[in-house]
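Posting for a labmate who doesn't have an account.
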Amino acid sequence: MWPLLLRAARAGVPLLRGAPASPGKCPSPGPVPDPLLPAGRARPSHSEPRGRDGRGGEEEEVEGWQQLYPGHIPTSPLQKALLAAGSALMALYDPYRHDMVAVLGETTGCLVLPNLRDKMKNHPEGYRILQERPRIRLSTLDMARLQGLPDGSLGREYVRFLEDNKVSPDTRMPPKFVDDEELAYVIQRYREVHDLMHTLLGMPTNMLGEVVVKWFEAVQTGLPMCVLGAALGPVRLSTRKLQVLATELVPWAIRSGLNASCVLNIYYEQRWEQPVESLREELGIFPPPAVRV
């Protein structure tokens, strides 16, 4: 069953035929803007679909299923449960399967994402982010400018993190299984600022660094995916690293997560010149422990 569900998900088609996903679990508004476009920029309507050739678009209803945004795959609660179980097992077996981690986050985050969205709506900077829908991708970043910023600035340290760890913001998967276009943007934003969390927390992308960031994000967001990663990630660590994690890094990550304001309410694209230490202090993140991670 799981391989069939996974193949269907990757193909971008409904997983099971039948009734659409229950709106009682994840509210589904009517036709709404594309989550990857700024608010107010409407996508073609289902009544008058337009594709590149003008004859029909990707956003039409697919065999009776309404796509709320490009790439959206409507799923029922049962389908979400099956996907969550399968992706959790795969992510536990191979924590670097980012596609499985992404599926797990979407299929288990229905009850938490509205709370994160409301935090953004009730904050001036967060509200602007929801309205303008910025994206953090290579196509939107002026890498040469960021590389030219002073050492210690958010932009320069973020680029340094990408270079040192050989990662790219373009590897973040677009949402598929979130049955609300605004919530889909919220989880997309969370994914795209994840590397900025590494930068602010001073954590690399090795297993120990990822576990520390997951503890911080679990406290900050409450996303079940983060909680699972924080709890089960340490099983692959050595005894020495487990000791450092338990005695210094996890307590610091939890205290910082509880003390910090919502990290989704920072318009990072307009803060590139700000020193990392200044932004940490503004958010309420305590300085990282002086230990080698």
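Reply:
Got it, the structure tokens are right above this. Confidence is low (pLDDT under 50) at residues 1-5, 11-62.
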